[in-house]
Design brief:
- It is a single chain.
- By secondary structure, this protein is an alpha+beta fold.
- It is built from 50 helices and 35 strands.
- It has a nine-stranded mixed β-sheet. Strands 15-20-17-18 form a four-stranded antiparallel β-sheet, covered by helices on one side.
- A hairpin with a 2-residue loop joins strand 5 and strand 6.
- It is flat and about 175 Å long.
Amino acid sequence: MEPGSDDFLPPPECPVFEPSWAEFRDPLGYIAKIRPIAEKSGICKIRPPADWQPPFAVEVDNFRFTPRIQRLNELEAQTRVKLNYLDQIAKFWEIQGSSLKIPNVERRILDLYSLSKIVVEEGGYEAICKDRRWARVAQRLNYPPGKNIGSLLRSHYERIVYPYEMYQSGANLVQCNTRPFDNEEKDKEYKPHSIPLRQSVQPSKFNSYGRRAKRLQPDPEPTEEDIEKNPELKKLQIYGAGPKMMGLGLMAKDKTLRKKDKEGPECPPTVVVKEESGGDMKVEPASPKTYLESKEELSHSPEPCTKMTMRLRRNHSNAQFIESYVCRMCSRGDEDDKLLLCDGCDDNYHIFCLLPPLPEIPKGVWRCPKCVMAECKRPPEAFGFEQATREYTLQSFGEMADSFKADYFNMPVHMVPTELVEKEFWRLVNSIEEDVTVEYGADIHSKEFGSGFPVSDSKRHLTPEEEEYATSGWNLNVMPVLEQSVLCHINADISGMKVPWLYVGMVFSAFCWHIEDHWSYSINYLHWGEPKTWYGVPSLAAEHLEEVMKKLTPELFDSQPDLLHQLVTLMNPNTLMSHGVPVVRTNQCAGEFVITFPRAYHSGFNQGYNFAEAVNFCTADWLPAGRQCIEHYRRLRRYCVFSHEELICKMAACPEKLDLNLAAAVHKEMFIMVQEERRLRKALLEKGITEAEREAFELLPDDERQCIKCKTTCFLSALACYDCPDGLVCLSHINDLCKCSSSRQYLRYRYTLDELPAMLHKLKVRAESFDTWANKVRVALEVEDGRKRSLEELRALESEARERRFPNSELLQRLKNCLSEAEACVSRALGLVSGQEAGPHRVADVQMTLAELRAFLDQMSNLPCAMHQIGDVKGVLEQVEAYQAEAREALASLPSSPGLLQSLLERGRQLGVEVPEAQQLQRQVEQARWLDEVKRTLAPSARRGTLAVMRGLLVAGASVAPSPAVDKARAELQELLTIAERWEEKAHLCLEARQKHPPATLEAIIHEAENIPVHLPNIQALKEALAKARAWIADVDEIQNGDHYPCLDDLEGLVAVGRDLPVGLEELRQLELQVLTAHSWREKASKTFLKKNSCYTLLEVLCPCADAGSDSTKRSRWMEKELGLYKSDTELLGLSAQDLRDPGSVIVAFKEGEQKEKEGILQLRRTNSAKPGPLASSTAAASANSICVCGQVPAGAGALRCDLCQDWFHGRCVSVPRLLNSLRPSPPSSPLLAWWEWDTKFLCPLCMRSRRPRLETILALLVALQRLPVRLPEGEALQCLTERAISWQGRARQALASEDVSALLGRLTELRQRLQAEPRPQEPPTLLPSAPASDPLREGSGKDMPKAQGLENGDSVTSPEKVAPGEGSGKRDLELLSSLLPQLTGPVLELPEATRAPLEELMLEGDLLEVTLDENHSIWQLLQAGQPPDLERIRTLLELEKAERHGSRGRGRALERRRRRKVDRGGEGDDPAREELEPKRVRSSGPEAEEAQEEEELEEETGAEGPPQPLPTTGSPSTQENQNGLESAPGASSGPSAPFSTLTPRLPVPCPQQPPQQQS
């Protein structure tokens, strides 16, 4: 490769082979097969089958190794020569006190070595200067023409290279009176390389890389201050970089002297050589200080001393030595003040006698020209790799390698193209400027660290998959010791040859040009990682490659003749190819093999982090190359790995164990070796050496049997001396043993000359045994002697081939095929004969045809072996021919009897041979059987067959022998099948059609299909459906004609059944209408009674609560209903599903439930009355405390007691009455002090389970129920409830109409009038008027009752338009009521016990009713007036209402803004009624608001009945809605009561639903 050519051109690719599985099973056989092609390239690549993937067996955690350090530009031979040359020239200048700085020319480092070589090739310095050919030198260095580069190169050559070349040639020592050097080992302080031999692991003490790096740095330019201070610089004004010869100008680099080191010699500052502008030469002293004489070597200092130290003769104080100093040039001792003493050899020189002369005495260390020349000509040390100091694991090495590659290429490692890495590798290798260092884990012993392949040993148990790969021939632990391999006959485990080596690579880590030890094969497997790039040279070009490398780099081979055996030298493949060396390349990827052939040079590098394994192997064809390698080693005096002679003799000693090809190859090698041994021993006798003794060389260590001359390991013989027992020589170097007499020398031999031919003969017999055997086989197979051999004789020949391990030849394959064919014939003949003997009990198998029987007989006759079974086969053939004739006769006389045909058929089956006539017989028998089956199937008395049977007969009929009877039967079957399928399709349409057919239509279809003699599944299904329809109609008639109306459950069941029938039923439509009407009534009743999201069913609400006596049971039952866990009241009443169908049972159970409910509530009242109040002390037992619906004990203010069950509840957890909604005075101003009219009655959600509609609403539901032709349990329960309510109402009216109660009511009226007439000093805000009072006993529906309540801020009635709904009025009204509390007095009536008791009992029973009655509220007002006002409850209600109004302000404003937005959009906000309803809806949130809306819808559906109205006399609200305080009466939005918010705050209760509210 020419200098300056940086582009690397990849060589052509090597052959790549992809074996099949059959080829892959024999590794060495496949390699021998591809050898003729692959050997021409030197290397080849093999891709195993895709599913051959051995597991990686290395223990990753325990694998630790120390890699080698590789400096890339020292690997390449030509680059290393250049670096060595730079080391020499740098050392030359360092000895003289100057440091070398390599100049840059045209922006690249000047190649001083190439410059020197080209100058020599062009005739030398003087000739080039004379002919002015420096421009040609620049052209050869690839510099561009022009720019006066030739003159610049001449300047650099004169300044740097020429002085060195002059010293090298010895021109400056012409006049020197030389004397021999006494000690050539002096001045070893300079080492050209810091790398020891390849096997060494100790790093060098000095680092040459620091020195080389300094050469490439530009020299610092002198400053003006330096020039002014230094007269020489001022005179020269030349600043060119580079050293000069002694005598040129020197400039001090450091301004101050270094302090003397305590442990080492003192060195002066560094000096840099500068050019003189004129011809005069002068040395600028580095320092005026005179250095003391020192004889210490520079190598004693801790770092190489590159300063120039000089010792003057006058420094010696002893005068006796002065006279002994004479100049070596002029041999005079005068002018001793100008006499220099060399620090190397102690010779003396005048400064003016030197060439060139020195102008003055130099200061510092000085060496004479003779010492300088000796030091520069000292040969460099042998080059090798040093070991790294760090130990790696696979993980840590991989992290380092990947990081290095990613940083170097500035991209992810797997994205770097292989071509880029290859070009960059060779660029770095060829560069003298860039020092890139990598590490390579090479030659790691698998015995110590473990192989990458699974290995069968006792260390660990292998899985079946691992066992398969552990025994594979491609396992590198197995291949060297395969039977066909030569190395299996070497007992020792030769590391790297028989035992694999491991290689852990990183990017740029390389293996240099080399051939394998003993020129053996090698195989490399890449387990994983990035590719490995290979270069190979075939064996035919091996010597050419060596010649080219020696020609291009003779300096390296002069110092290391066996350089190529050290694996430390690369050369660019392009350079080799340019000199005619054929080179190939390949990229080995993970899972691929690379094989190198004998004496094929190969090298390469790694593309990145990877793991490979390699080993050597030798086949029979290697033996001649192995012998030639030993001769080559003998010429190079290189040690052998093993003795080739010993290997040959060991194989010859046991020839029967050798493969036949190997035996032939060993015989050939043994013959040559014996002939050579005869010649050498004959020469020994001619020399007169007659003494001899036998020696077992294989028992001696290798180093005790190596020739002292050529280093060959001796085995057959060696020459030794009695007087010199420490050495021996091979017989090729008998003259180099010692100078002792021949009589003292003797022969040490392993075998005598008579034993060697005997061994050779055994090999010959083994090699020729195949020919003898082959001749016997050929005679037997071709029956050349006319005698057929028996099977036993042929088996014996095959067994002999197996025992002697003959190769798998064509003849052996013919023998095996003949044996296999004969054994198959014998087995077949035995089966044929034994089958006939078994008769009808023979096992069914594939019968032989008559033609096959005849061919089989011919086959047995033609085989080259005798078989006695051939007679039995002939007997069978005769029997078959006789049967054939009989069968033909029977077929000719058709129609024969079926029995005769069947018997003939059975006889034919027993023969074991298929006869053509037997098939005809079989067809005739099958035809008769089919006709009989059809006849039986179509017979009128037979059981009807299915459609599948008919189709099967038709299919079978197509395969029987044709005849008129068969055709007729098939036609009848086809016609019958067509008719049956048509009716079946018609029935299917009836079953699946959406439009159902009436029963009469279906009956007609079934009747017509009855005449078809086939079983039709769809007709049968239609028949069953019709029967079910008739039964259903009968059930409907029975229910409709019974004594009672049918129950809803029964009708629903009938409807469900009727819908599933595929029959059109008129009654079904009537039933569906009845069920729909019943469901509609039940839904209407549910809306009337049930609250929204109620946990009760309608039937439960209508029935009395039979277990009301137990507080815990009632409360837990209510909580379970909230959670959906409790059963219905009807079950608690003891009513089963059958009982619900009997009206009498329902009535009896309802009556019993009423009584139980009354008794239970009385007991519950007594129990709850004994419980402590919320303000009582907490000392009472926890079990006696009340429990609110939220699950907590109601304590402190804000608790209310239920008027029915007497239990306590949090006011915030339940719905409570609203006082502001209940105060409804009439015009004349009603007194606010009529406190008994205030709505303070409270029923808890456990006692009030429903909406409690008015009786008039319930009566309307009963009227609708009477029109239903269906019985519902809820209807009967509603009738019972209505009767109970009417009964109670009658008793209540009777009690209110009594004389005592009427008088009490009159007094109440007078009291109310008196309170109205009392004058007031101020007009406080009073209740707004709403409607005139009316009679308390009026029974009307309440249409004339007032429907609005509220408070007014004046005396007169204010229209709704003038009263704005605000928050301030409600707050003031509440404050007004609070201020009136101290004025409330009572009781206002005196109720005697005789009057109170019946009223209280009526009140209790009325509260138990789930119906709203006006009489209930009238009785409650009387009882209230007869007792003191409950101020505590009133305060609690007021506080709760205040808290509720405070919480509803924000929500009211948000709703008002929303309403206004709707108005702006032109929506529903235009409706005045809706505007007035909005504030009312603000009062309720969540379920309460939804219940209010639902109740309004319910009132629209059930008629014009409104909520219950109060008695006119009392002027107090009687609606349950006002009692509960959740919603005003319908129509309230038209009055001024709209501003009052009634939202009751709620606390969460421990159940998933909201607690049942007192009112919807």
